[in-house]
Design a protein that fits this description.
It is a single chain. It contains 3 helices and 3 strands. A hairpin with a 4-residue loop joins strand 1 and strand 2. Helix 2 packs antiparallel against helix 3. The protein has a 3-stranded antiparallel sheet. With about 130 residues, the chain is an alpha+beta fold. It is rod-shaped, with a radius of gyration of 27 Å. This is TadE/TadG family type IV pilus assembly protein. InterPro entries: TadE-like_dom (IPR012495). It comes from Rossellomorea oryzaecorticis. Keywords: Membrane, Transmembrane, Transmembrane helix.
Length: about 130
């Protein structure tokens, strides 16, 4: 009986499958975290580009500068756009909510941030010419 028990204890068949099952959820979680970081980075880049495009449009006296910024922020959730043309500079701020991956046991996760851009105002062209 001792030999039979010792034979089964020293048998390592199936140990790789058990190790795989133990590590698989951690690998998936790691991949989801990397994906979430990539989504946030993408949102930051798009929001900064939208703010810059809106400020550029406001700097050349385009009345639709806010729509230009919204169109440039395609693919992300824009919470608000503030600013606009001023006397010497056009300042535009774009408030964004980054997309969040829904994970079990993690419910209330939000990433809100603001991107802003400033452009010098261009001289207004005369409409007589």
């Amino acid at each position: 009986m001792k030999k039979l028990f010792k034979k089964h204890v020293q048998n390592e068949k199936g140990s790789q499958a058990i190790e795989f099952l133990a590590m698989f959820p951690l690998v998936i979680l790691g991949m989801l975290i990397i994906w979430q970081v990539a989504l946030i980075a993408y949102s930051i880049v798009v929001a900064e580009s939208a703010a810059r495009d809106g400020a550029r449009a406001a700097a050349i006296h385009d009345e639709n500068w806010e729509q230009v910024a919204r169109n440039s922020a395609f693919g992300i959730h824009v919470a608000g756009i503030t600013g606009g043309p001023g006397n010497e500079e056009a300042r535009v701020e774009v408030q964004v909510k980054a997309p969040v991956i829904s994970l079990p046991l993690i419910h209330e996760m939000e990433f809100d941030f603001t991107a802003d851009a400033v452009m010098p105002m261009e001289e207004k062209a005369d409409s007589d010419e």
